[in-house]
Specification:
The protein contains eight helices and eleven strands. The strands form two sheets. Strands 1, 2, 3, 4, 5, 8, 9, 10 and 11 form a nine-stranded mixed β-sheet that branches. The protein has about 200 residues and is an alpha/beta fold.
Length: about 200
């Protein structure tokens, strides 16, 4: 099993950590304030999730990034080249309290994000569900809750798809980072916040 790091301990980062912990998958989570600030969060999540530095989380085989859009450059600045490791873009180009969208110059947020993580194989995923649904039981409605993903590297998407399935969700591949990322981007895309369930 690939090692997993999470950069960002806000609502989405905590939800991802909770989903991993529920499935018994260990991970290292980091924030901008240091590992010692995460004690209460770790206690709420449960065993299997450890606090680490940003550099420790970024060194894992799969790295989730879930940070307020305006703070992304600082959160990723100075990290070494990802040299082919998978980075999951779980971000949206909007943040409170006014939730006004950022001007992306006609590009998708994932395309801009990819430029901040040199060497990474970027997969857009885990950003379209509300945190309580991401952290909750994916089979609570009788089927499996859908999680979308998009990216330009087929092997990376296959690995993240397998992880999504292991977490109990149903993985749906939306295609390339540009096309698929646009569908799940909030605001603007048609899929964010939709709680869709796969029945088989």
């Amino acid at each position: 099993m690939s090692s997993i790091g999470i950069i960002g301990a806000g609502n989405i980062g905590r939800a991802i950590a909770t989903a991993l912990a529920r499935a018994g998958i260990p991970a290292t989570i980091a924030n901008s304030r240091g590992p010692e600030s995460l004690a209460d969060i770790l206690a709420a999540i449960g065993p299997g999730i450890a606090a680490g530095t940003r550099e420790e989380a970024a060194a894992k085989n799969i790295v989730f990034v879930a940070v307020n859009w305006s703070k992304l450059p600082a959160a990723l600045a100075g990290l070494p080249d990802f040299v082919g490791r998978i980075v999951v873009d779980a971000n949206n180009p909007i943040e409170g309290p006014l939730f006004e969208p950022f001007d992306l110059g006609g590009r998708t947020s994932s395309e801009l994000f990819a430029a901040m993580v040199p060497g990474a194989r970027v997969v857009k995923a885990f950003n379209h569900l509300q945190p309580h649904l991401l952290a909750g039981d994916p089979s609570s409605e009788g089927g499996r809750r859908l999680l979308f993903q998009a990216g330009d590297d087929g092997a990376a998407k296959a690995e993240i798809g397998a992880l999504i399935e292991r977490l109990g969700f149903a993985a749906v591949d939306l295609g390339s980072l540009a096309a698929g990322g646009k569908l799940t981007q909030f605001p603007g895309g048609p899929l964010p916040a939709l709680n869709l369930v796969w029945f088989s």
